[in-house]
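pls design
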């Protein structure tokens, strides 16, 4: 998934998704200067966020 797809999936602004990745809060990797994400990593991040709110 690219940054735009992740932002849409998480219902965030693209800039917010970018900052989360740049700060290491959202697991991703760069390819040619663009962030890429594995869907399984995004799902894990969502579950982690749910657990932290309890």
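designed seq:
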């Amino acid at each position: 998934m690219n940054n735009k797809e992740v932002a849409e999936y998480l219902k965030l602004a693209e800039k917010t998704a970018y900052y989360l990745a740049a700060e290491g809060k959202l697991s991703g990797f760069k390819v040619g200067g663009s962030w890429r994400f594995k869907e399984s990593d995004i799902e894990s991040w969502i579950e982690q966020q749910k657990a932290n709110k309890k």
